[in-house]
Specification:
CATH topology of the largest domain: FAD/NAD(P)-binding domain
Radius of gyration: 24 Å
Shape: globular
Number of domains: 2
Strand content: 15-25%
Number of strands: 20
Bound molecules: flavin-adenine dinucleotide
Oligomer: single chain
């Protein structure tokens, strides 16, 4: 099929947005609100939209998940179509989309995790936080995982909000979990487990921790777990002390941590211990995780430098939470080091550093796995502004494919797309299952259940 440059007024711009997380929806919103409005087809590998808002954000944070209301409003605008259960790379490729659309915005997030690169990392019982998070949130690809929660101590490596999510979720009581949309299996496993102590291992000091103060404070408000912090680990070197001057989050974190350290434990069934300046150097065990060996670090200009001091912490499970990482898609440039698509403000660049006409990215695959949900709005809007500028200045290849060409292509490939009405049927069923129990929803979490609910609409 030929690509040609049409004057912008001929017909609305047609854009494919790949991925339906915050970045995808904010990009779609900006496109649909442009003048004249563009038409957007959103392609998503799961039958359900919202990306990490559904499958990453912790189930005990329902208010944060309500951002999906804004996404629902975007989906209701004329010119928007959703094609779930369509995976780029499997059901369609970039070359297909380049023929069918004037522009393509990739908002596929960061689908895998960073590794620690230490011995023992692959022992049974050593997991990524990604896996646990996807499991308790009902991601259909992760429901077969079996976390042995019969152990007494768990180590969580990392000091960001995801690490705190993992510690908190594992520390919640049955009552605290009961009103959430965590899967029934995970509620049963966590509430019925033998866990006694959850230990966070932060590589650097408290002033450098990435977690934010409201999330940290919550750790001190758990019904069934004491928070334990050793005052000695909160001592700051002069450089860290200086950081507090200009870093409000670090300053507030320190205040909260000092208050935690001064607390007398209440003797709760579980405890969450926050450790600083320790890095795992090996995960130990005979056939499964039995301990983690850590080295004490000292800070040199805020960098962690290992000392000779080592310690072995007995634990039956390790969760590494040291960052997410993007995965490459076929035929699209990818930077392995950063896990992102090389880009300039969202214009995807070729090997020579030149923008590839019609190819854009937004969200975590554009800037890496940082920032909160709202960060993706500015990020996606920036991308869309460049796309619209390219359209105005004639730099966008314009497709002469008919509007329904994607449907034909998917049928030809044997794909079974879930359209927005299908997702609404899933949504209604999940909410109706949750309502009598006082829960926001009871999620369908197998592919079969999801696809069956979608096709019954
Ligand atoms: C565990 C966790 C907890 C978090 N908690 C919070 C929080 O409490 N508050 C907050 O503000 N932020 C939170 N965040 C951050 C927030 O979720 C991210 O900023 C945001 O989701 C990134 O948006 P995105 O659209 O780039 O990626 P994602 O949300 O990951 O969306 C990407 C979408 O692309 C789809 N996709 C991937 N590959 C393909 C493909 N090949 N074909 C088609 N579709 C594809 C995925 O299925 C997914 O739906 C959290 C993040 C994590 C990991």
């Amino acid at each position: 099929m030929r690509l040609r440059l049409l004057p912008l007024s001929d017909r609305p711009l047609r854009v494919a947005v790949v991925g339906s997380g915050p970045a995808g929806f904010y990009a779609a919103g900006a496109l649909l609100a442009s003048d004249p409005p563009a038409e957007v087809d959103m392609l998503e590998r799961l039958p359900t939209p919202w990306g990490l808002v559904r499958l990453g954000v912790a189930p005990d944070h329902p208010k944060l998940k309500e951002v999906s209301r804004a996404f629902e409003k975007i989906a209701a605008r004329p010119g928007f179509r959703f094609f779930g259960n369509v995976e780029l790379g499997r059901d369609a490729r970039q070359a297909d989309l380049a023929e069918l659309y004037d522009g393509v915005v990739y908002a596929v997030g960061a689908q895998t995790d960073r590794r620690l690169g230490i011995p023992g990392e692959d022992l049974p019982g050593s997991w990524s936080a990604t896996e646990l998070v996807a499991w308790y949130n009902g991601h259909p690809d992760y429901q077969h995982l079996e976390f042995d929660l019969s152990v007494e101590r768990v180590a969580v490596v990392g000091a960001g909000n995801v690490a705190l999510d993992v510690l908190r979720m594992l520390a919640l009581t049955r009552e605290e979990l009961a009103s959430t949309d965590a899967t029934d299996a995970s509620i049963e496993a966590i509430a019925g487990s033998d866990l006694e102590e959850l230990v966070m291992l932060a590589r650097r000091g408290p002033a450098q921790a990435a977690f934010t103060t409201p999330e940290l404070k919550e750790m001190g408000e758990l019904a069934g777990a004491d928070i334990l912090v050793d005052l000695a680990e909160l001592e700051l070197d002069p450089v860290s002390e200086a950081r507090l001057e200009g870093d409000t989050n670090a300053r507030r974190n320190l205040e909260v941590l000092r208050e935690f350290a001064a607390r007398e434990p209440a003797g709760s069934p579980r405890s969450v211990r926050l450790r600083f300046c320790v890095s795992p150097v090996a995960i130990l065990g005979d056939g499964r995780v039995e301990a983690v060996e850590v080295v004490r670090n000292r800070l040199v200009d805020e960098r962690a430098v290992p000392t000779d001091e080592r310690e072995t912490i007995g634990c039956g499970l390790v969760f590494r939470s040291v960052g997410y990482h993007g995965v490459p898609l076929p035929d699209i440039p990818f930077d392995e080091d950063t896990g992102t698509m090389p880009n300039d403000g969202g214009r995807v660049l070729d090997e020579a550093g030149e923008p590839i006409p019609g190819l854009y990215c937004a969200g975590w695959i554009k800037r890496g796995p940082t920032g909160v949900i709202g960060t993706n709005k500015k990020d996606a809007t920036e991308t869309v502004e460049l796309l619209l500028e390219d359209a105005r200045t004639g730099k966008l290849p314009r497709s002469d494919a008919p509007a329904d060409a994607l449907v034909d292509l998917l049928v030809e490939r044997g794909a079974r797309p879930v359209i927005y009405a299908g997702w609404e049927a899933i949504d209604a069923l999940e909410r109706s299952r949750g309502e009598p129990l006082g829960r926001p929803r009871v999620k369908l979490c197998s592919w079969d259940e999801l696809l069956a609910a979608a096709t019954e609409s």
